[in-house]
Structure formats: structure tokens, C-alpha cells
Write a structure and sequence with these properties.
Layout: H1 12-38, H2 43-46, E1 66-70, H3 74-90, E2 95-100, H4 103-112, E3 117-121, H5 127-137, E4 141-145, H6 151-159, E5 163-169, H7 173-180, H8 183-192, E6 195-198, H9 201-209, E7 217-219, H10 234-244, E8 249-255, H11 260-273, E9 278-283, H12 289-298, E10 303-305, E11 318-320, H13 327-333, E12 336-339, H14 351-356, E13 360-363, H15 374-379, E14 383-385, H16 389-401, H17 403-421, H18 423-435
Parallel strand pairs: 1-2, 1-4, 2-3, 4-5, 5-6, 6-7, 8-9, 8-12, 9-11, 10-11, 12-13, 13-14
Pfam families: Glycos_transf_N
Keywords: Cell membrane, Lipopolysaccharide biosynthesis, Membrane, Transferase
Function: Involved in lipopolysaccharide (LPS) biosynthesis. Catalyzes the transfer of 3-deoxy-D-manno-octulosonate (Kdo) residue(s) from CMP-Kdo to lipid IV(A), the tetraacyldisaccharide-1,4'-bisphosphate precursor of lipid A.
Length: 444
């Protein structure tokens, strides 16, 4: 199948960037390898960042495609896995490769990827690393998730005949402004994609302003709505329910620096009318646990820290859940979840995971990363927006004292996710038709 014409040629800035990455690759590798090693990643797997594959290319049936997905970290990789599962039902002979850059995403992928797929760490965006990667894997299609615009990788893949798509695309206003200052290079990169699927109309307009071909740009909703629910542990759920012994509970999840103070102030206010109320506080970055523990003590609250094995008792007012991999269990435990990264202008976090677990959502106003999601979710009654500790306490109190309103919010959140996940079939259809990977396709 012939490749579509690019809308713009490569620029001097692109060639300069490619030359610079060649020079800086050894230093970049030292930094990323150190970070991976700190998470227990083996030397062999660290070298995947230099394009050295640790797995063989899969054996493929005649004309069956190898479809490559790339996502930066856990959230993007989960969206990719959702698409991999859907595509595999349509393309049973296809095989899939998922690349990402973080140890946590690799651990998640090992648990959740289907048998038709495998994971590698993404090559650094330098000519030698990308060249080795592409020479080994020879992907027929490359699907990049959200905002992964690596110029050397995209250019080399396209030159090698890989058809490219950007899915779940989102760009911050800062990123768009930066690319507009380099418009000829932005046009070149946009022209490398055969298909661009955006989270909302605004992102579609932004991509068009950067030179994307209007015939290839389609708003398609947020793919995270269709991701499988986070896994939970029945054993852990049973243990925690026994420890809580019927006490009411609310969760503050993915909190960032500067937000815990408001959460703790809200909890102290709630304890006046709900003295047995328990708060599960789940920081976005568990390494901040000691700092947060000091804040809890300063607030005059009794807490237990999960990472040290402290028991949740009847005296525990705050349970500091500073561990990884247990978020699905925590969401299944509580009907009320506040999502952090939103009381400050950080961008917010994924409400779909909360709604899929059956909980209602609370958020601050700083949810710019989910601007297409929160307003309709709030309008549907599945989420409530708060601005400070006082409003947060009021919202939690309302749901604690009015169980029918809480149930209505939980039901509304579930309905919204179900409606949004229907967009997945549209996305899969566009990917199959635009990327030319429909060999041996099953009828949907």
C-alpha cells in the first residue's frame, strides 16, 4: 500500500535535533538506566532503551501485521492495552508490541498484556537506538498514545514503511504554543501521521493549527473510558473491611504536594459530625510518605502507614496508603473518592478508574488533562467539583448523610463511562482502515 504524501519536508531544526540526540544519547542512557536500575530492572532490559531487543520478533502468519503501540507511562499504556484487546478480536492473526519508558508501566504490562502482545522499553529518540529497534521489530503500524511526539522515532519509522497513528491525542496549551514557534517542524511531524484521533474538538483544532491534514484528524473521545477496571484483591478487600468494621470511609487519591493540607482540613471538619470516619490518603508519589505523615501528625490526627505494615485499627483516623499496585482495591472499598492533582493547576487524574469501581467522584477545578471528561461527568451527576477544604468537606458530608444522593451519583458515573466506552469501536474501525492492517480481519 502506498504511503500518503507528507505535508511538509524535514527542517533544519529537525536535522539539528537528530544530530544533537546522537551526541547526547550516551548521557541520556546513563540517566534512564540509573532510574530503571533503582526499580530493579535488569541490565539486559535497560539496554532496550538503546534499541537492543531482549525478545525475538514474533512469528507471524503470512501477511499478518505486527502492530506497535507506544505510551509514556502507566495511563497511556493502559489505554494502549485496551486497544490491543479490541484489535485482537478483529485481527486474530496480528501480534502486538507495547513500548513505554517507566519501570511501573513495564510491571503493569507484564500483568495485563494478553498473550498476543509483548513489552519492551522504548528506544531513546536517537538515530542509533531507533535504528536498532526498527531493524529488529519491523512494525507494520505504529500507534502513539496521547502526546508522544518523538521526531527521530517517527521520522525513521515512516521512512521504513511503518504507517503511523496518534490516538487519544492531547496537547497542553503550553505544548501547542511551543510547537507554534516551530511551525515548519510541527507541520513536518504532523504530516508523518496517517491518522490523528483526538480526545476532544479543541485538540483537533490545535493539531490542525500545527499543520495536520484535516482529512486525517478525528475527535474520538477519551480511550481511558474503555480501559478494563483496575484489578482488586478479594483478600485485601476482606481484610480491610474487617479492620474497618463498618466505619464510614472516603478516599483522597493521587494527591500532590500542596493538596494534602486541604484534604486533612476537610477530614478534621468531617470528624466533628462523623467521629468514626476514616480517610484513606493515597499520594500520587509514595516517596513523599514521610513528608505527608508529618503533616498528618501536625494536623493532630492519628494515622497508620501501609508501607511499614502498621495495622488499621479503630483509632486510625487516616490510613496512609503509600504503596503501589493496590489502587483498584482501594477504589472498590469506598463509594466516595476525591481525585487529586486538581485543587492546584496540575491537570487532574483519571475519573474512569473510579467510576468503573462503582464510586462517585470529587475533583478540584484543575483538571485540564481531562477537560473533555469532567464537565459532562459533572453535568450527568457522576462527579462534584470543589474548590477548597470547606467545599470538599461539605460534598463528602452530603454523600455520607444522604445515601440516596450518593447512590444516584455512583449510578450516573457508571452510565457515563459506559456511554464513553462505546467510542472504542469507532476508534478500532478507523485504525484498521487507515493503517492498512486489516489482513485476516474478522467481521465485527
Amino acid at each position: 500500500m502506498s504511503k500518503p504524501d507528507q505535508t511538509a519536508p524535514p527542517t533544519l531544526l529537525f536535522y539539528s535535533y537528530r544530530a544533537l540526540t546522537r551526541l547526547l544519547a550516551p548521557f541520556a542512557y546513563r540517566k534512564v538506566a540509573t532510574k530503571l536500575a533503582a526499580h530493579g530492572v535488569s541490565d539486559r532490559r535497560q539496554r532496550e532503551r538503546l534499541g537492543h531487543a531482549s525478545l525475538p520478533r514474533p512469528d507471524l502468519a503470512a501477511s499478518a501485521p505486527l502492530i506497535w503501540f507506544h505510551g509514556a507511562s502507566v495511563g497511556e499504556s493502559l489505554a494502549a492495552i485496551t486497544l490491543i484487546n479490541r484489535l485482537h478480536t478483529r485481527l486474530p492473526a496480528a501480534r502486538f508490541l507495547l513500548t513505554s519508558g517507566t519501570a511501573t508501566s513495564a510491571t503493569m504490562a507484564a500483568k495485563r498484556l494478553p498473550d498476543c502482545a509483548q513489552h519492551q522499553f522504548a528506544p531513546l529518540d536517537s538515530p542509533s537506538a531507533v535504528g536498532r529497534f526498527l531493524a529488529h521489530w519491523r512494525p507494520d503500524a505504529g500507534i502513539f498514545v496521547e502526546s508522544e511526539l518523538w521526531p527521530v522515532t517517527l521520522s525513521a519509522a515512516k521512512a521504513g514503511g511503518t504507517r503511523l497513528a496518534l490516538v487519544n491525542a492531547r496537547l497542553s496549551a503550553k505544548s501547542v504554543a511551543g510547537w507554534r514557534k516551530k511551525l515548519p517542524t510541527a507541520r513536518y511531524l504532523m504530516g508523518l501521521f496517517d491518522l490523528l484521533l483526538t480526545q476532544n474538538q479543541q485538540v483537533a483544532k490545535d493539531l490542525l493549527s500545527l499543520g495536520a491534514d484535516p482529512a486525517r484528524v478525528f475527535p474520538s473521545g477519551n480511550l481511558k473510558a474503555g480501559a478494563a477496571a483496575l484489578p482488586d484483591s478479594p483478600g485485601l478487600l476482606g481484610e480491610m473491611r474487617t479492620a474497618l468494621a463498618g466505619r464510614p470511609l472516603w478516599i483522597a487519591s493521587s494527591t500532590h504536594k500542596g493538596e494534602e493540607e486541604a484534604v486533612l482540613d476537610a477530614h478534621k471538619a468531617l470528624l466533628q459530625d462523623h467521629p468514626d470516619l476514616c480517610l484513606f490518603l493515597i499520594p500520587r508519589h509514595p516517596e513523599r510518605a514521610d513528608e505527608i505523615g508529618a503533616k498528618i501528625t501536625q494536623a493532630g490526627l492519628a494515622y497508620a502507614k501501609r508501607s511499614t505494615g502498621m495495622a488499621l485499627t479503630s483509632e486510625t483516623q487516616v490510613y496512609l496508603a503509600d504503596t503501589l499496585g493496590e489502587l483498584g482495591s482501594w477504589y472498590a472499598l469506598s463509594p466516595i473518592v476525591f481525585l487529586g492533582g486538581s485543587l492546584r493547576p496540575i491537570g487532574g487524574h483519571n475519573p474512569f478508574e473510579v467510576a468503573q469501581a462503582g464510586a462517585a467522584v470529587l475533583t478540584g477545578p484543575g483538571y485540564s488533562n481531562f477537560i473533555e471528561t469532567y464537565p459532562p461527568l459533572i453535568a450527568a451527576g457522576g462527579a462534584t467539583q470543589v474548590h477548597d477544604a470547606r467545599e470538599l468537606a461539605q460534598a463528602v458530608d452530603l454523600w455520607l448523610t444522604q445515601p440516596e444522593q450518593l447512590q444516584n451519583a455512583r449510578d450516573a458515573a457508571r452510565r457515563y463511562v459506559a456511554e464513553q466506552s462505546g467510542q472504542l469501536d469507532v476508534v478500532v474501525n478507523r485504525l484498521i482502515s487507515s493503517l492498512g492492517v486489516n489482513v485476516l480481519e474478522r467481521t465485527p
